[in-house]
Amino acid sequence: GDVIHRMLTATQYIAPLMANFNPSYSRNSTVRYLDNGTAFVVQWDQVYLQGKEDLGSFTFQAALHSSGRIVFGYKEIPVPVLQISASQHPVKAGLSDAFMVLNPSPDVPGESRR
């Protein structure tokens, strides 16, 4: 859509695993992408959780196919996802296509509400 707002990444995402990852922690950590014309693939390779580096590295990917199919792949998930703390960053996996609509406010003429 045309609306850009501060909650965009909280409301619109494709996330094989969203957490407080720190790709700069290790020289071996990378976030790579590839578009071969029929699929766009993003891979998080050997990334660590900020402040929890001792748990080990995570490797996973998301593939968006031109047919509309979305595939999440997981190679290394060293701890159960439910054990990842959400205190510093939301922990989510999946899709969200929420959007914001501005409607005229019935209470205040000339104002909008979200």
What would you say about this model in short?
The chain has 114 residues and is mainly β. The protein is built from one helix and nine strands; from the N terminus they run H-E-E-E-E-E-E-E-E-E.
Topology of this structure?
Elements: H1 8-11, E1 12-18, E2 21-22, E3 30-35, E4 39-49, E5 58-65, E6 70-76, E7 92-97, E8 103-104, E9 112-113
Antiparallel strand pairs: 1-7, 2-4, 3-4, 4-5, 5-6, 8-9
Please report the number of helical segments.
Answer: 1
The total tally of domains equals 1
β-sheet strand percentage: 35-45%
Query: SSE string, helix = H, strand = E?
Result: HEEEEEEEEE
Regions with pLDDT < 50 over 5+ consecutive residues?
Answer: none
Major sheet, described briefly?
A: 5 strands, antiparallel
Radius of gyration: 18 Å
Helix content: under 10%
Distance between the termini: 15 Å
Keywords: Membrane, Signal, Transmembrane, Transmembrane helix
Subcellular location: Membrane
Organism: Sinosuthora webbiana
Protein name: PLDX1 protein
Describe this structure in words.
It is a single-pass type I membrane protein. InterPro entries: PLXDC. The chain has 114 residues and is mainly beta. The chain contains one helix and nine strands. Strands 2, 3, 4, 5 and 6 form a five-stranded antiparallel beta sheet that branches. Strands 1-7 form a two-stranded antiparallel ribbon. A two-stranded antiparallel sheet has the order 8-9. A hairpin with a 4-residue loop joins strand 5 and strand 6. The longest helix has 4 residues, at 8-11. The model has no long low-confidence stretch (mean pLDDT 87).
